[in-house]
Amino acid sequence: MKLWQSPAARTGASVAVATGLYGVSFGALGVASGLDFWQTQVLSLLLFSGGSQFAFIGVLAGGGSGGAALGSAALLGIRNAVYGMQLNALIGPKGWLRLGAAHVTIDESMATASAQTDPAERKRAFWVTGIGIFLLWNLFTALGSLLGGAIGDPKVWGLDGAAVAAFLALLWPRLRAREPASIAVACAVVTVAVVPFVPPGVPVLVAAVVAALWGLFGTGKADEGLEPDVDPGAHTKPEGRMP
Amino acid sequence: MTTWLYILAAGVVAFLTKLVGYLVPARVLKSKRMTRVAGTLTIGLLASLTVLNTFANGQQLTFDARIGSLLAAFIALLLRAPFLVVVIVGAAAAALLRWAGLP
Questions:
Q1: A58 DSSP assignment
Q2: Chain B closest CA to A35's CA: distance in Å?
Q3: What are the residue ranges spanned by the domains of chain A?
Q4: What is the pTM (predicted TM-score) of this model?
Q5: Does B83 sit within 8 Å of A230, measured CB to CB?
Q6: How many angstroms separate the CA atoms of A238 and A118, rounded?
Q7: At what angle do helices A159-171 and B32-55 cross, to 10 degrees?
Q8: Paired sense of beta strands B60-61 and B56-57, if any
């Protein structure tokens, strides 16, 4: 099958466009948080994981230290190790390909790949989504940085409000049951409670401890919180899914 | 300069985290507990970052135009708006409230 005839590749491409586009918000918020153009761009090139990137600049924008920014980004990236393990079993890349596969292992490539049942289609879905998002995400990060740098005072344009909306939108698809909603509320309350008493950036890490303890000792679903930002199923519905 | 170090470190840590999944034998990581903690961490951190960006100003809690962004984004998400639209709505809410005179 040619790549453009593959339904999985087409799903991957549409997820890549939808996700890549919002790189523009990351770019704009990156420069608003005090980073320069290249610092913002290198986050998209090397860190390349939406949630972790927004966490990094979100902590900096709130006055947190580089260490706290690094800590939150690293903790938020732990789920990618779980995806890597699952993708290793699903598509099994060999040799050096594993390095490339690891780099494009994110919520969306995991979700589109795991939505496929045919092994060949699964590979196409993973690579098209992963590489597609990497290219578009970086392109739109650059656009967003230039835009953000050109508009002057970011507060007049409500860019700090855009960050609030971005985090809520990243959280939203993960709140499909009562347990994740309880975790979210608990961590939100703990965060607000400790803000006056610890240095900026540290409240996120306190919330991370609460969330990790909840995960260790709670008894809910095993894969709570591991949902993509963009639902790959939404793009495949016309092609033979039951309504 | 130190900012660059943290950026590069974050990139390296993120890549190694992803790579671990491909290199470590499945049984090591395939515990339900590992998967669960990865998930609850994601939820907890994003919830924390949401309220932090809404209410925190350094070590102070403030009530300003960003609360309007939180509400506007919430409504947009209820109406199933796509990510980028939610972000724009959030920015517009804060910009409008500031234009109207809120801090």
A1: H
A2: 8
A3: 3-177+221-236
A4: 0.85
A5: yes
A6: 19
A7: 160
A8: antiparallel
CB contact under 8 A, A85 and B22: yes
Mutate to test the interface with B, among A57, A85, A86, A94 (most CBs of B within 10 A): A85
State which residue of chain B sits closest to A87, comparing Cα positions. Answer: B22
**Residue carrying structure tokens 């949630």:** A51
Among A118, A121, A115, A132, which Cα is nearest to A231's? A115
What is the residue whose two structure tokens read 């409670």?
Answer: A193
A143 lies within 8 A of chain B by CB? no
B61: enclosing H helix or E strand: strand B60-61
Going by C-alpha positions, the residue among A202, A206, A219 that lies closest to residue A63 is: A202
Total count of residues recorded for chain B: 103
From the list A125, A163, A117, A121, the residue with the least C-alpha distance to A144 is: A163
> Is residue A243's pLDDT more than 50?
no
CB proximity B37 to A under 8 Å: yes
Q: What is the CA radius of gyration of chain B?
A: 19
| CB spacing of A169 vs B54 below 8 angstroms | no
Q: Tell me the ipTM for this assembly.
A: 0.92
**Does any CB of chain B come closer than 8 Å to the CB of residue A180?**
yes
**Banded pLDDT at A240 (limits 50, 70, 90):** very low
